[in-house]
Amino acid sequence: MRWKASEFWKNASPNELLDFFQSIEQGSDLKSLADHMLAEEEFCDLVFEYLWLLRSEEGSKRFLNDDNLTPELLMKFIYFGYGKQFLSGNFDSNAYFLQIRSLFDSAQSLRILSLAEEMDRDPTLKIHLLSNLDPQTWEAYFDILEGKNMTMQALLGIFSNLRENEIRKILLNSHTLYYYLRMMMVSGIKKGVDQTEKEMENRVRLESILDSIHVWETFCQGLGERFDFKSEATLSPNKRNPDRLSLVLRELKKLPAQDRGDVLVYMRGNGAVLDVWEETTILSALGNFDRVGKYF
Question: Which of 113, 179, 178 is nearest to 148 (CA)?
Fold first, then answer.
C-alpha cells in the first residue's frame, strides 16, 4: 500500500502518481484510501492536490468515478478545485462548474446530488450536475425527490436565484437537461395550481428561457430534415454540403457575439454542427464578418 507511506507523496513524479491513480481504482485498496482521506483532512488535501493537477487524465477521471469515493469526498474535491481556481484570479463559477462536471459520469453525478443539504446551498453546482444525468439516472433522481417528499416546484426553484443569462448558458450547454425541463414544465406542473406568486414568476421566467432555446431546437430539427448529419459526419470537411454551414452562419450572425459560442455548443449537441472543426470555422467566419463584413 504505497499510499500509506508519506514519502511516496513527497517524492513521486507526475507519471508515478498517474500510474497510482490508474492502478488503485481496480483494487480493494481504494476503499482503504478513501476511508483514510475522510479521517485525515491534511492527507485528503494532499491527494486532491495531485488529482487536481492530473484532472484531465483518463486515469484520474476513472479514479474520481469509483464507487468507493463517497459523495462527501467528491464534494470536498469540487470545492478544493473551486478554491484553487478562485485564487488564480479571473474566476467564473459557471465556467468552473462546466469544467468540473466533465470529470464525473452520470452515476457519480447522481450520488453527489443525493447530498440534499449541500446541493440546496449551491444551486449552480446542482444544475450542472443535473445536466450530467442520462435518461436512466434522471428516473433515479425523480425517485430520490419522491423519497424526500420534494415536489417538482422545489426542483424548479433552484433556478430562482440564478440570472437569466446564467440559466440560458447552462441549458444551451446541456440539451438533455433542457429536454427534461421542458418535459417537466409540460407534464409535471399544472399552471395556476398550488403555486405562490413567486413560483409563478419563476415558472414564467423559465418558460421564456426554454422557449428561446426551443427556437434553436426547431432550427436544428429543420436542418436535420434537409441534411443527413450522420452521413456528413463520415466525410472530410471539404466534402460536406456547404449549404448547412451557410444556414448556420446566417442565423448566428443575428446574435450578439458573446452568445454565439453557447448556441454552437447546443447545435453540436443536437448534431447540426458536426465537430470541433466546424465550430472553430463558424466562429472564425463570424469574427471576420464582424470585422470586415465578409465571412472568408
Answer: 113
Residues of the chain with pLDDT under 50: 191-192
Type of residue found at 217: E
At 220, list the grid cell. 436544428
pLDDT in tens, 63-112: 899 888 899 999 999 999 988 888 877 778 878 888 888 999 999 999 99
C-alpha distance from residue 251 to each of 17, 34, 68, 229, 290 (Å): 47, 50, 47, 18, 14
pTM listed for this prediction: 0.72
The burial class, CB within 10 Å (0-12 / 13-18 / 19+), for 266 is buried
Burial class (CB in 10 A: 0-12, 13-18, 19+), 20: buried
* CA atoms of 35 and 171, how far apart (whole Å): 36
258 phi, psi to nearest 5 deg:
-70, -15
DSSP reduced 3-state for 173: coil
On whether the CB atoms of residues 284 and 195 are closer than 8 A, the answer is no
For 16-49, how does the pLDDT look when each residue is reduced to its tens digit (9 = 90+)? 777 777 676 555 577 888 888 888 888 888 888 8
* 88: amino acid identity, one letter: S
Exposure of 273 by Cβ count < 10 A (0-12 exposed, 13-18 middle, 19+ buried)? buried
